[in-house]
């Protein structure tokens, strides 16, 4: 490799690293960028100037200047690019179109039959108007969050809950829509949202736990989502609790999900003599002070808290983030979860790992799906699915400066 080639490659790495830092932690000062990346101030100045010329970062005023002098920070130019994000369930899709800084520009929701004869054609027809309506702003791609396993290399989807098995979803939709399509487990997409735009932004190592129809988890370590060797990392709901326990839809018995999902809580309440039609009625009973309803939540929370503590002991996250529909009853779940979590934690970490609750909002899951695409310019990882987005990015004016 010649010194000229080596120097060009180093400049490319520096540009991606600076853009990644501004995208994930901006607004941020040049001094902070230099300190975090170990670059010289002149290098940061040169790189940031190139990125501003490319139209992807901009100067903003520091709201809290130090030393009595106005400060100058760098932030992403939101209008530099957009992406579409979609959360897919068995009977509905919820989607958004967002720009590079996570500002939601449009929202949509529509009925969807996941087990129709050709659901992908139907999905492409639902999405096509929003793809075509992107206007002059570069559309980086479409992100989809689905409730199942997704092979990060091939994009093949295994989602038994919605009847999809070994489905080549991204390849098929990419051909139909003529844009890159990235797919991931829906809990991973939520973690992507939290890391890029939400309450996980201060952390590079955290565990996201979701509660509701199912129970899931996602792991962010070193700033990257960890999907595992088969795309199944974070399948918290299928940790074995009791081999003689209730049957699970996965074919086993006694999975955690059979004790703490919405349906499991309702079944437990009915077995205890409570007449509740569903999760909302159970929650209302607990809110009204019913001791039986509160006990159901407390016991489920304790079971979940103990298992989450075990995961935290293995993964050593900076924080545990809790989200999903189940957080509507968090006041009651927390009565069992928090004591069990603290008691089960490895003692040196017991007070170091915070538990943060993010109220449920389907739009956040959809924005997380968009974040799969939007984070591509902000990451140094070589995720195979992201290659299509990088190739599309390369075709945009000035793109040689941001990749």
Automatic annotation (TrEMBL):
One of its GO terms (molecular function) is kinase activity. CDD domains: ASKHA_ATPase_ROK_CYANR, HTH_ARSR. Keywords: Kinase, Transferase. This is Sugar kinase. SUPFAM superfamilies: Actin-like ATPase domain (SSF53067), Winged helix' DNA-binding domain (SSF46785). Pfam families: HTH_24 (PF13412), ROK (PF00480). It comes from Phytohabitans houttuyneae. The keyword Transferase applies. InterPro entries: ArsR-like_HTH, ATPase_NBD, ROK, ROK_cs, WH-like_DNA-bd_sf, WH_DNA-bd_sf. Signal peptide: none annotated. Belongs to the ROK (NagC/XylR) family.
């Amino acid at each position: 490799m010649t010194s000229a080639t080596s120097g060009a490659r180093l400049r490319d790495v520096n540009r991606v690293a600076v853009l990644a830092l501004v995208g994930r932690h901006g607004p941020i000062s040049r001094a902070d960028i230099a300190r975090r990346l170990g670059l010289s101030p002149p290098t940061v100045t040169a790189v940031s100037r190139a990125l501003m010329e490319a139209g992807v970062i901009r100067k903003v005023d520091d709201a809290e200047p130090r030393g009595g002098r106005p400060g100058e920070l760098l932030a992403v130019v939101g209008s530099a690019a957009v992406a579409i994000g979609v959360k897919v369930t068995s009977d509905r899709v919820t989607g958004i179109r967002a720009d590079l800084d996570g500002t939601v520009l449009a929202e949509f929701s529509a009925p969807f039959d996941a087990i129709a004869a050709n659901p992908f054609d139907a999905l492409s027809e639902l999405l096509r108007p929003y793809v075509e309506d992107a206007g002059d702003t570069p559309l980086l791609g479409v992100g989809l969050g689905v409730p199942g396993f997704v092979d990060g290399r091939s994009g093949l989807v295994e989602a038994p809950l919605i009847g999809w098995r070994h489905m080549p979803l991204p390849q098929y939709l990419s051909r139909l829509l003529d844009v890159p399509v990235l797919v991931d487990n829906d809990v991973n997409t939520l973690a992507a949202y939290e890391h890029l735009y939400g309450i996980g932004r201060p952390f590079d190592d955290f565990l996201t736990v979701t509660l509701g129809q199912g129970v899931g988890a996602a792991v962010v370590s070193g700033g990257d989502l960890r999907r595992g060797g088969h795309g199944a990392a974070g399948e918290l709901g299928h940790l074995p609790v009791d081999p003689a326990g209730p049957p699970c839809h996965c074919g086993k018995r006694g999975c955690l999900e059979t004790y703490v999902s919405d349906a499991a809580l309702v079944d437990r309440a009915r077995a205890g003599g409570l007449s509740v039609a569903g999760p909302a009625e159970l929650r209302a009973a607990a809110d009204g002070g019913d001791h039986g309803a509160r006990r159901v939540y407390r016991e489920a929370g304790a079971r979940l808290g103990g298992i989450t503590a075990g995961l935290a002991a293995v993964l050593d996250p900076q924080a545990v983030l809790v989200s999903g529909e189940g957080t509507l009853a968090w006041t009651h779940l927390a009565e069992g979860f928090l004591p069990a979590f603290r008691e089960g934690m490895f003692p040196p970490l017991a007070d170091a790992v915070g538990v943060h609750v993010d109220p449920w909002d389907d739009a956040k899951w959809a924005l997380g799906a968009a974040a799969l695409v939007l984070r591509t310019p902000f990451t140094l990882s070589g995720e195979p699915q992201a290659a299509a987005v990088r190739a599309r990015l390369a075709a945009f004016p000035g793109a040689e400066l941001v990749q």
